[in-house]
Structure formats: C-alpha cells, structure tokens
Amino acid sequence: MAKTYDQAYFDKWYRHPDHSVRSPAELRRKVSMVLGQAEFYLGRSVRNVLDIGCGEAPWRSVLRALRPGIDYRGLDASEYVVSRYGRSRHIGLASFGQLAELRFDTRFDLIVCTDVLHYLKPAEIRAGLTGVGEMLEGLAFLEAYTRDDDVGGDRDGFISRAPDWYLREFSAAGLLPCGSQCYLGPRLERHVAALERARLPVS
C-alpha cells in the first residue's frame, strides 16, 4: 500500500514528541551550514532556493530569517501540502522524477532535497537528477541515508543502498561532492581545490 503524506503523517513525524527526529535548533544549524557552503563557493549571498520534496516547507522560514528577501520555491508530491500551503509558502505539486522535464525561468543558487531520495526507486532518482544538474547554479544539499547509517524516523519504504551508489549517480549528473551531503554544480567545479572534495580523483 502506498504511503499517504497527509496531515496525520506530518503531525506524527514532524510534531509529535514521540516520533519527531528534528528540533528547530538542529534545523537552523543545518540551514546555516548549507547556506555557508553555498555562499563560500558562489562568492556571494544565496538569492534563490529550490526545495524538492519540501513537505510543509520547514526550511522556508529559517531561510527567510537568515536571508531576508531570499526567493524560495518548494515542490512536493503531497496533495495535502499543496492544497494547504501551496499559495502561502510557494509550493508547487511535483515529484522528484518530474524534474527530468520541469524547468523554470532561472537557475538556482541552492537546491535542497532532504529525507527523500532513500525512499525513491533508481529510475526516479536518475530522472530527477538530470534536472538538478541542469538547473543548479551553485550548490545542492542532497540529504540521503544509506545502509551504513543508523537511521531514525520513518523506516516505511526506506531503501537501503550503499553510499557509493548515490555518489555514482550524483557524479553522472555532473555533481561534485564537497562534504556534509553538499554537491557543487558543474559551473563551480573550477573553484574547488582537490582537498575540498569529499573523494579525491584516482591518479
């Protein structure tokens, strides 16, 4: 039976004290870290963000607090999320795989996809990554967990893969790992020193 990402799901995993795996303070630290990484390599402030699989858009308020005026766009496959928050939080209805065809009138300084990829099938991941690579101006934060991680939270539908599987797929999309689940787009590769890379090239 397919999972339903309705209000009950978000109440359980993001608000209920027995299940919630993230505190507001932890989220702020994470967003600050990702912004810092992106701005270091861009050499300027992040101007716009695409948040894929954004859920109820918890990143939006933190991003706007840290960077007032930032242009935030969210995408999620949950009809509940879009009907309730689509207009007020700028969230459109789309799955990760639809990024193979979906394009906007700009590229993005920061693309975020948290806690999504390890629930998706390989074909959808590969399809969506083509869009990520093409739309990325700066840095992508692709937070995925593997069979080597002690994963908490929602285990229903979790697909246990090796870390190298993700690295191969990200590399095929032109994404360069620079640590802490951050990946640089092809336009920034010339700015990265060898020891900044998460994995050194084979000599």
Structural class: alpha/beta
Q: What is the number of strand segments?
A: 7
Distance N to C terminus: 48 Å
* Low-confidence blocks of residues: none
Any idea of the CATH class?
Alpha Beta
Q: Tally the structural domains.
A: 1
Spatial extent as radius of gyration: 16 Å
Write up this protein:
With about 200 residues, the protein is an alpha/beta fold. It is built from six helices and seven strands, in the order H-H-E-H-E-H-E-E-H-E-H-E-E. The mean pLDDT is about 90.
What features would you highlight for this structure?
203 residues, methyltransferase, alpha/beta, Rossmann fold
Task: Give the SSE map.
Blueprint: H1 7-14, H2 24-42, E1 48-52, H3 58-66, E2 71-76, H4 79-89, E3 91-93, E4 108-114, H5 122-135, E5 136-143, H6 163-172, E6 176-179, E7 182-184
Parallel strand pairs: 1-2, 1-4, 2-3, 4-5
Antiparallel strand pairs: 5-7, 6-7
Helix pairs in contact: 2-3
Keywords: Methyltransferase, Transferase
GO molecular function, one term: methyltransferase activity
Protein name: Methyltransferase family protein
